[in-house]
């Protein structure tokens, strides 16, 4: 029985076209993109073409794209780079309670440096209120960082409105678009963002490569020191194969953007409806908001999410709790807690994220398997009272 992968928000397989595009850059066109000989020039030309492809996916100019080692580094470079470039003593950052840890923990590091940080709450549907952003502004606010699509819920945030507020207040605006890229159209000018992060392995390129869009004119202090790569914004010999892969992945994402989200939305909606029909007391989190097409997060009360992930894995279905597992203790997800779920409900929630590998038959099998596994685990739960069926 083939395994079914419903965890595309954790990572995606490398697209075969992406793989074949990057392979020559390991052992054939292996030059250092900074070398002046032909080996180097060939690598440089390919890197710059990739930059064009990434820029096109985001509606940016190639010179505004900085290649990084992934989403985490892009988030760190954006936030630390902008805040540390501001010379004033007192600084304030606005972010949200549902950001990825790459943003949250970076903001915490800034707090340790004396920077004030506001973590805005979100609605029960998992969306930040732009009015809350406006109210949180202070005279010394230097940066707003709000993600474009949440990785656990798929909820899409009102980036355009926040962009207008940031522009009016003359505050830098960063968005973590790692989970939005390839799923919704992105146009940095339209969104009004100054910085935007993407990650290769969430868009069918390999792990360990990403990019940061930096609007021209944005003051960014480098966060690592070395050579003059990436226009002095990110030193280190370019990861040429990874960059080529990211460029190809961006090109494919853009080409598929017109059809793939609609295909995934139909599959996701069918899955959600079937699960809600067949599993008593199941609830979809973030259902009241606009969401990316591939993600559903469902609470199966009375069950431990980790147990359900393992039980489904035994049935060859891969999904996730979305909660970070630290030192053996299962902390409830900060995102689910932020939308108002009590800890036991948060721990009873699973994320299913579909993708390019997902076929209709995969969804059919998940629909056939998940309700039975949930019922079995609930039968073992002392908290669960089986609904009495009326004859
Ligand atoms: C995966 C992810 C990241 C981190 O990206 P990496 O390339 O794995 O470092 C950051 N933000 C969001 C929303 C993500 O989903």
How do the strands line up in the largest sheet?
A: 2-8-7-6-5-3-4
Instruction: Point out poorly predicted stretches.
Output: none
Structural class comes to alpha/beta
H and E string: EHHHEHEHEHEHEHEEHHEEHEEEHHEH
- Overall number of domains: 2
What fold name stands as the CATH topology of the largest domain?
Answer: Aspartate Aminotransferase, domain 2
Q: How would you describe this protein?
A:
The protein is globular, with a radius of gyration of 22 Å. A hairpin with a 2-residue loop joins strand 12 (325-326) and strand 13. The chain is of the alpha/beta class and 391 residues long. It has a 7-stranded mixed β-sheet with strand order 2-8-7-6-5-3-4, with helices on both faces. Strands 9-10-14 form a 3-stranded antiparallel β-sheet. The protein is built from 14 helices and 14 strands. The chain has 2 domains: 4-12 and 258-379, Aspartate Aminotransferase, domain 1 (Alpha-Beta Complex), CATH 3.90.1150.10; 16-256, Type I PLP-dependent aspartate aminotransferase-like (Major domain) (Aspartate Aminotransferase, domain 2, 3-Layer(aba) Sandwich). Pyridoxal-5'-phosphate binds next to helix 4.
